[in-house]
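Rather than argue in generalities, we have chosen a single entry, letters for residues, whole numbers for local backbone shapes, without further comment.
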Amino acid sequence: MNNITFSRKILRRLYATLVLTGFSAATLSAQIFFYNNGAQIYTGTTAIIKINGSFQNDGLSGATPVFENNGTMTISNSGNPGSVFLTHGSTLQGNGTYFVEQDWTNDAAFSADNSTVNFNGNTQEFITSTNSTVTTFNNLLLTGTGIGNNRKKTLHINAKVGANGALVINDRELETLTNTMFVLNPSPVSVSNNAISNPPGFVSSSFNTGGSGYLSRITNMATAYVFPTGSSVNTIRYRPVILTPSLGNLNTFTVRLGNNDATNDGFNIASVDTNMCSVNPLYYHEITHPLGSDNASIDILYNLSADGGWDGIAKWNSTAPNIWNNMGTAVMTTNVPFNDVLKVNWADFSNSPYILSRRKPEMPVLACNSVCANSPGNSFTASGSGATYTWTSPTGTTITSGQNTNAVTVNWGPAPGPLTVAAVSQWGCSSRASSCTVNLSASPVAAFSSASTELTYNFSDLSTGTPNEWAWNFGDGAVSNSQNPVHTFAACGPEKICLIAKNGFCVDTLCTDMVIDEKFVVPNIFSPDGDGINDLFYINYACLKEYDLTIFDRWGLKIFETTSGGWDGRNSSGVQMSDGTYYYILKAVSFVGPADYSTKGFISLVRKK
């Protein structure tokens, strides 16, 4: 026969053989459909029942059958689907284990007691009912080796895990569609999965206008509860959420992953408040709080390499309608394999969609001091929380260093203007710009002239812009703060003469290369009459390495020659020469260069009468 049927008529005769109290088994051959039609059946704790086909517990005969399994029942698929059917007022109960290789259809009563139901098939399995009966499991295990859709254990109706049970997902996908998997055990470890398998195990749910599927958990501790949500729609994606209630009261939370652009579900990702740059275009979560009033911390995990970087969480339609609203400061943590963004002690669960966001950093604080017109090296500093900073300065200025940092150096031009800075997060989100006006103070323009008598120089300040402080550096180690200093150099030669003119905090510097006493003047007249005024035909030879002065009378006779000093109007014998015009030849070569200043000309000798 193809089926074995137990009815009320054979109950008393077979009861003794169906109460399996030792290590024994009732094994049914292949292609057999196990059909209990009203019998009362009990199996002991070590009993093993193997069904190569499907199992149906049925009360169609009018009886109220109770099948109590305390051992191990394997409903396998060998030709016929290895499914479970609970129908027509029957009851399946006991503390045993069920290995179900195909579907579970519950239209009657299942008393989970301390049992374990293991959906271990390698093809897609369904948990369903034709009369809206919700199954409450004790321990619900998902195993198998199927891939793709055959990883799925799919709810076509809500299902529950009882107050003492556990949901063990392993590496399978519990697909709830628009239904909800309720876990009524408040233990934080009542839900577990293999998060590192490829692909990992997770609970997936679908969106439907007016209601979505969820994973629901009861909590009664102020500790972390993991919601291992994911999806295999388009891209396989495992993105769990961790909720931590603030208190240990009784609460219920639900979570779903929306594995698509939230815009497709009516939550436009282009509509964000002014505190954000963007939100995650790849996925979002729905989180609800249908029972209890405790706040909870929301921790959303993401994969940096696959999802990009995020540092905030946004919520749809709260507080401003029809946009994503920034939820305020969140804590971002880098970890492996997931980064996470944590919003601590969240209270408003009035709307369900949540999404990762890129928050604008706080607007940096910037204060501008006045600077000097046409001045280099002006420093400006912003304070804020940006990873980098973007600066802008007006036309006529140049940012010479510090761009992308919080401190810049600017060479300022001739006009005042605004300086702006924006903080930029590590994910490229810019804050609102902070701006201040840089006012200018008039800068002096340093200038000077000099006049010399041999090695002594008189310096005259010609600076404009009303400077009131001066700093001179004469290049030979000597300095002065006088406006118009006099300085005698120890030796001739090149020197760099610098003047710093200061007006308040504005300064200007002028440096000029000078050759000290190199040039000299040859007079064209002198009066050697002993009055101490212009008594000598003198040429300053202090800076000359070669010097030879020769004097000739009007007939071309040499009357005087010297290699040092000047001519006092006498010939080489000491005789005074008469007034008149004389001719000279000068050989003069300086130390610097060297430069040859040799020359010749006429000199007039005139004595006062």
Q: What stands out?
A: Residues 1-32 have pLDDT under 50 and may be disordered. The chain is about 0% helix and 45% strand. The two ends are 167 Å apart (CA to CA).
